[in-house]
Amino acid sequence: MTEIKKEVVNDIGNKEVEIDKIVFWSSLTVILAICLSCIIFPEGANEAASVAREWVIMRWDWLFLLFGIASLLGSLYIAFSKYGHVKLGGKDEKPEFKFSSWLAMIFFSAIGSSSILWAVCEPMAYLQSPPFGYEPFSLEAYNISLAYGMFHWGPIAWAFYALPALPVAYYFIVKKQNNLKLSQVCSDLIGQKNADGLLGKVIDIFTIFATFGGNGPGLGFGVPLLATLICAVFGLTRSPILDMFVLIIWATIFSVSVYRGLDKGIKILSDINMVLIIVLLVFVFLVGSPLFILQNSVEAVGTLATNFIKMSTYTDTIGGSGFGQWWTVFYWAWWVALAPFMVIFVARISRGRTIKELLLGIIGAGSAG
């Protein structure tokens, strides 16, 4: 088989990098097999996915919850430790991007159509099937519904990105390593021999597969949402052709943004998105009931703070409602699946930032949204 090579140009220099054929073809084979099984045997594939999901969230719920708490505590400990002031790239290193653009790129790399869909649907779902044994549509259910939405998109969720982003940023910026494969990032932990061997390839294959699986729900939720919005605005009837059109436009915008690079592509797109989201928030605030929004938001923050530990450890083992598993653990698994992609991206744009800025920026920017 002919050697697959690609010219990679970045701030480290011009290097010819050989694509790992074992990782590439193994990942491609697995992904194609999954896609084909979903097309040829949709019912069987759906049942298999449901069984796998239930096995993960019902048996390993305790591990995901503890891992989330550990990620947040670990991030905060390092941020406020004596190492927090250490700058990634040297004392005189200037940040590559201005602070607002840096935060925007972090935020919008993980939050897209989900902010439109779940901001409305999630509190309503909690209101209908609330946690903690509350009665549906009760006063307690109303109070907890908005707070739980903040919780699932709050500090613990973003800590899944913050903590692993630090060693990746150190490897890329401080050690000036061009190879951002996670197997190589783990080389100091598992040894260079293992990183170059079978264990390293397993890590890289898992990274690709996790990224594929993590982005799947985003497209699955986002494409139908945007297609439905187009139908509502222009009076069209939704069809598979319209869904495909939305997906193509979506992929084109993303591809052009990536092709133009960080400074001329993703940065500009993130800045535009930030302006649009601020305009949307101001519009909703002014057109809606400003006093109600302020009062309800403040109360939701207080409810979140009061119940934070309970939310972070809620499994309802005795009651058996499954709320913690089907919502919190599912969310945590989703965030973890996207982590390999996110930490590499965040590391790439964080040159010149301190460790405290990196950790608190990721957690703060995401939670504020």
TrEMBL record:
Q: Name one Pfam family in it.
A: BCCT
Q: Which UniProt keywords apply?
A: Cell membrane, Membrane, Transmembrane, Transmembrane helix, Transport
GO molecular function terms listed in the Swiss-Prot or TrEMBL record: transmembrane transporter activity
- Please give, as recorded in its UniProt entry, the membrane topology of this protein: Multi-pass membrane protein
- Subcellular localization, as worded in the UniProt entry: Cell membrane
The answer, when asked if Cell membrane is one of the entry's keywords, is: yes
Tell me the superkingdom of the source: Bacteria
Name one cellular component (GO) term: plasma membrane
PANTHER family named in the record: HIGH-AFFINITY CHOLINE TRANSPORT PROTEIN-RELATED, L-CARNITINE_GAMMA-BUTYROBETAINE ANTIPORTER
Q: What is this protein called?
A: Betaine/carnitine transporter, BCCT family
The record lists the lineage as:
Bacteria, Bacillati, Bacillota, Tissierellia, Dethiosulfatibacter
